[in-house]
Amino acid sequence: MTTPPTPPTPPTPPGGGAQPTGGILPTGPVPRAGTDTNAIYRPDYGTGERPRPGINPANEQTTVLTPVPERTAALYRIPLNERRRWQVVAAALGVVILVLGGLTVYLWTASDKWAARSANLEGQAYDLGRRLSTEQEYVVQQTEQIDILTQQLSTAQQRITELADQSAQAGDDVAYAQQEITYLKELVSLGGSVSLALNRCTNEQKTLVDYLQNSASYPAEGIAQFKSEVDALCAAAQSANAELQKQLAQ
Amino acid sequence: MRRLLVATVALLLAGCSSLPSLPPPLPTDFVPSPSPTASDYGPLLSPDGFDVAQRMTVRVRNIGCGFLATGTGFMIDEHTLVTNRHVIEDSSQLEVSTYDGHAVDATAARSTTAADIAIIRVNETLPVAARLAEKDPQTGDAITVIGYPGGGRLTTTSGIVLGSVQDPLNGSVGTVLGTTAKVEPGSSGSPVLNAAGEVVGVIYAKNDVEQSFMIPVSVLRQLLDQESLLIPQQNSC
């Protein structure tokens, strides 16, 4: 172990610029032990070894010390591994900031577009609502018209049914009348036949009366036979007349 | 440190996947186009609003020898209708009229002794025909009877099937079905419809307690399948 020298002079950054200040981190080489009489020798933190107070380190192990200028920047006092760690952290933070920035822009854009979409949809919803209201009003009007038409249709159907019934009844009446006419025609025909038979009966009876008044001129058997025929004829005529009267009475 | 970077990148990717997406393009029209479908009532209703059951049911006028009688029938095809045998008995002329008063002349009639069923043929083409059910109705089934009771207006009545009974008139082979539907003279030959509008029987009689009797559709089907059982009706005058 060597005796610490006098306070060192800060190293000149590469390129010969001004002395580093604050947060600007120099990247120049760290002075080595033995090359700078003003260097302060400290254990290399990279080895993890620290001098323990009250113990002579020489008795335990020999430690290679890295000279650190007394007046160097705080960054250069940080061991190399830790510095790299901070650099990575800083880079990661930068990436995170970039990502967050991108996200912010994206979310801002998405929010704007969704807001525009919402406004558009709201407008269309109001438009559809107005159209729906108009259609509902139209449906109500059409429903009323349908009710009226249904009533009219029902009335028309009833009327058709009534007319069909009247037509059918008229057809029945016509058929019945035709049957009556046919029947009356038969009666008239029967009446004519009866009348003819009765007239013939009357005429034959007159002839018979003449025969009887001049009976001396005719044979008795002939008159009797003629009388028999006249009686049969008149009986048939009277029978037909009775049947006619019976049918007329129905 | 590397793990931290990997974890960070993974976290960022996972976060990106859960980011809200931008709104998709709006549809041009929010109102769906109507899909016109054929009305279920199309084939069932005529333009004048009468249904198939009313249009297929006809009024039968029997101009007999010195008498006039009316009954009911129903179309089973364009030129054939079914009624009761006793509706057309002793006829000299048969006339058919439809629900709207249209008169149609019958050209021929056939009947059978196996049941009170008769078949009438007409020259004119009638627009609708009945659908015969595949099976007879069961006890308790709801039925509808359409006919011309008393020779009057086209009338619809309803009731339920009471069950199989022997023919009270002893004019049919096998059993017939009793119903609670009220009918009158003139309703003979009326079609009995089930809930689906299919013909399940033919009305032919009633009793004093306002129960009606019908020939089941199975018997009608057998008769239609065996035309030899149908004998031409002669003019009795």
What's the tally of helices of chain A? 3
Mind summarizing the main beta sheet of chain A?
A: 2 strands, antiparallel
Structural class of chain B: alpha+beta
Strand-residue proportion of chain A: under 5%
Task: List its traits.
heterodimer; A: 250 residues; mainly alpha; two-stranded antiparallel sheet; 3 helices; 2 strands; B: 237 residues; alpha+beta; six-stranded antiparallel beta barrel; six-stranded antiparallel β-barrel; 13 strands
Architecture overview:
The complex is a heterodimer of chains A (about 250) and B (about 240). Chain A has a two-stranded antiparallel sheet. Chain A is built from three helices and two strands; from the N terminus they run ββααα. Chain A is rod-shaped and about 205 Å long. In chain A, helix 2 runs antiparallel to helix 3. With about 250 residues, chain A is mostly helical. In chain B, the strands form two sheets. Chain B has a six-stranded antiparallel β-barrel. A six-stranded antiparallel barrel of chain B has the order 7-8-9-12-11-10. Chain B is elongated, with a radius of gyration of 30 Å. The interface of A and B includes residues 96 and 107 of A.
What layout of secondary structure does this protein have?
The complex is a heterodimer of chains A (250) and B (237).
Chain A: E1 40-43, E2 65-68, H1 74-77, H2 80-213, H3 220-249
Antiparallel strand pairs in A: 1-2
Helix pairs in contact in A: 2-3
Chain B: H1 2-17, H2 52-56, E1 57-64, E2 68-75, E3 80-83, H3 85-88, E4 91-97, E5 103-111, E6 118-122, E7 142-147, E8 155-166, E9 175-179, E10 191-193, E11 199-206, E12 212-216, H4 217-225, E13 231-232
Antiparallel strand pairs in B: 1-2, 1-4, 2-3, 3-6, 4-5, 5-6, 5-13, 7-8, 7-10, 8-9, 9-12, 10-11, 11-12
